[in-house]
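Write out the 3D structure for:
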Amino acid sequence: MKTLLTFMGTAILAISLLVGCGPSEEELRQQELQRQQAERDSLERVYEAQMEQMRQDSIAQARQDSIAEAESRSQIEFSETGNYAVQVQSWRSEEKANNELHQWKERGYENAFVVKFGNEDTGNVWYRVRIGRVESEEMAQNLKEKLMEDYGAESWISQLN
């Protein structure tokens, strides 16, 4: 019986020591808090990476949109029958208008032309230098913007008869 009590006492003591050697409840709570914090940190890094990727995608899309807009603006289709032109200058002197017309043609605008406007009886005559004949007002607006960007040319859209 003594042996049995000694054995049981030793077993109880061993179990108590084993239980006592493990982490306390406070340590377990701390470990759980650390695990939760690590999980939050990991999720935050994933979120930040996703946001950065979305930002990069947005920048790339904006760049593509900008390029596409510039290309569409630079593609101006002239037409023999178009109802719009862009007037870039107006002169009282036919000679001055023709000189300016020549300059526009040298710049590559072979479809530039001069229109005589006014009343010769009163002497109120103007020679208007115009570029194009395009089909739509939108195309004329694109031409106007291109002339401003490339040459700083103040201009306006004229609807032709």
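The longest strand covers residues 124-134.
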